[in-house]
Design a protein that fits this description.
Blueprint: H1 5-11, E1 14-20, H2 26-38, E2 43-47, H3 50-62, E3 71-77, E4 85-89, H4 99-103, E5 109-111, E6 117-119, E7 135-139, H5 144-153, E8 158-162, H6 170-179, E9 184-188, H7 195-209, E10 215-219, H8 230-243, E11 249-253, H9 260-266, E12 273-276, H10 278-284, H11 289-304
The structure holds iron/sulfur cluster (2 copies).
Length: about 300
């Protein structure tokens, strides 16, 4: 039977594994889902494609679990949001120093036989950690109609819209809200938005949704994948703190780690779960399956406390 997302959020805190809006690597999705499904993860967040959805189902099956026991969210992003960026090498400006290869958290850049790097776009999440004069970034635009189609076809639990841009496209936002038959989640961070601006955006979303049944993902520093410290997660917790008085469902995200729930509790913040991306994926990278599940479980349990 179809789960009710908001009923679950009312009952308990959830852990969402973020596989990345830009991450289209099937191998990467399957292996992470397998480990985190075993570790007690509640929700998986992937790019809006048929391949990614099937990769999640494959990972769940490999874990020996039922797909009905998990929530599934597909992500999209508006123009200007960092999550839809992809890196590209400008060969004429590249010295072949390979610094970008070593710094990429996704292992998306490889060195070719000619000594120049190459970006495997299906693995790139647009984090810009490889920034250099010989790398440019382009927007991999989201196809919202395709996301709605997939959400209905697979009876998904949520569509996420990354909304960080210098100018909020209110008309687009309104039309997406009106069109969607699937619950929506909106990712907001403070890169461009003041406290007042966030309040204004959320109030408009509430009006257009006609209810408070939507999620705000309070983003700290997106794709930071920082250390397991309070300072890495401080921004995400503070964003959640700012919006907690005027929205009902909050997931904390961006720079999240094993310290997030502790800090949120110290600050007395009301929230419904924690989304973890880079930190969670890096935690289990290159570990044996047994060790990976133990590490993942500790992270999941801490976030759900
Ligand atoms: S793209 Fe930049 S960092 Fe990467 S090899 Fe070329 S010069 Fe070095
Ligand atoms: S460092 Fe980030 S932006 Fe650069 S190639 Fe890797 S994933 Fe993409």
């Amino acid at each position: 039977m179809k789960k009710n997302l908001f009923k679950i959020l009312n009952e308990r805190k959830i852990f969402k594994l973020v596989l990345g809006l830009g991450n289209q690597s099937e191998e990467n999705i399957v292996s992470n889902v397998e480990i985190y499904a075993k570790a007690g993860c509640d929700m998986f967040d992937i790019n809006a494609s048929e391949e990614a959805i099937n990769a999640v189902y494959k990972g769940i099956e490999k874990a020996g679990k039922n797909k009905e026991d998990f929530l599934l969210c597909i992500s999209t992003g508006i123009s200007g949001d960092a999550h839809i960026n992809k890196a590209e090498i400008i060969k004429s400006k590249c010295s072949g120093c390979s610094a970008c290869v070593n710094v990429c958290p996704q292992d998306a850049i490889i060195l070719l036989d000619d000594g120049y790097p190459f970006v495997q776009k299906e693995k790139c999440i647009g984090c810009k950690k490889c920034k250099c004069k010989a790398i440019s970034f382009f927007e991999n635009e989201s196809d919202f109609d395709e996301a709605f189609r997939l959400a209905e076809k697979y009876n998904l639990d949520c569509i996420e819209i990354h909304l960080s841009s210098k100018k909020v496209p209110y008309d687009l936002l309104k039309s997406l809200i009106k069109k969607s038959k699937t619950p929506l989640s909106f990712c907001l961070d403070r890169k461009y938005y003041s406290n007042e601006k966030m309040k204004k955006i959320i109030n408009k979303i509430k009006k257009w949704c006609g209810s408070s049944e939507f999620i705000i993902q309070a983003d700290g520093v997106p794709m930071s994948g920082g250390e397991n410290t309070f300072s890495s997660t401080l921004q995400a917790v503070s964003t959640a703190h700012l919006i907690s008085d005027f929205t009902d469902y909050i997931l904390i995200s961006g720079g999240t780690n094993e310290k997030t729930s502790e800090l949120a509790k110290i600050c007395g913040i009301k929230y419904n779960g924690i989304s973890v991306g880079s930190y969670a994926r890096n935690l289990i990278k290159d570990k044996s399956p047994e060790e990976a599940v133990l590490l993942a479980k500790k992270l999941v349990d801490t976030c759900k406390e």
